Every structure is written in C-alpha cells, then in structure tokens.
C-alpha cells in the first residue's frame, strides 16, 4: 500500500519505490530507500510530513503515493 495510507505517528518500512529513474534517485538522495523506516509525523489533505533518519521531509500526495510500504 502507498505511504499515504499510513496514520500519523505510525512507523513503517519502505518496501518499494515506483516512478521514473530520476524520481527514484531523488527520493533515494532524501533517504527514502528500500527497507528503511519512515515515521509519519502529520498528514493534511494527503500531503505528509515524515521523519526519515534524522530529518523531517514534506511530501506532496503524488510523491507519497510512489512510496510503497
């Protein structure tokens, strides 16, 4: 299921990242890699603020839908 289905406060593990190569590379540079843990900090209208490693990152709904958990 996509990351947008996770509830605030929930920690999930990334299973797969879909999209074009440049999009997957950009997400990997931000810390979104397979088997890493991501904590959803908050969600507003499908847009997410997530904690990856030691940083918080805002993702829009389309970007979050590419990250499968």
Give structural notes.
Helices cover 20% and strands 38% of the residues. The chain is α+β, with helices and mostly antiparallel strands. It has a single domain (3-68), classed as SH3 type barrels (Roll). The strands form 2 sheets. It has a 4-stranded antiparallel β-sheet. It has a two-stranded antiparallel ribbon with strand order 2-6. The longest helix has 10 residues, at 21-30. It is globular and about 30 Å long. The mean pLDDT is 94.
Annotate the secondary structure layout.
Blueprint: E1 11-13, E2 16-17, H1 21-30, E3 37-44, E4 47-52, E5 55-59, H2 61-64, E6 67-68
CATH superfamily: Ferrous iron transport protein A (FeoA)
* Main beta sheet strand tally, sense and closure: 4 strands, antiparallel
CATH topology: SH3 type barrels
Helix/strand order: EEHEEEHE
- The N- to C-terminal Cα distance equals 6 Å
Summarize this structure as a short list of keywords or feature phrases:
four-stranded antiparallel beta sheet, globular, 20% helix, 6 strands, 2 helices, alpha+beta, SH3 type barrels, single chain
Please provide a brief summary of the model.
The protein is α+β, with helices and mostly antiparallel strands. It has one domain (3-68): Roll (SH3 type barrels), CATH 2.30.30.90. It contains 2 helices and 6 strands; from the N terminus they run E-E-H-E-E-E-H-E.
């Amino acid at each position: 299921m996509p990351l947008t289905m996770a509830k605030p406060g929930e920690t999930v593990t990334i299973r797969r990242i879909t999209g074009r190569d440049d999009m997957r590379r950009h997400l990997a540079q931000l810390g979104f890699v397979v088997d890493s843990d991501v904590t959803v900090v908050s969600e507003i209208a499908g847009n997410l603020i997530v904690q990856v490693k030691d940083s918080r990152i805002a993702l829009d709904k389309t970007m979050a839908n590419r990250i499968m958990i």
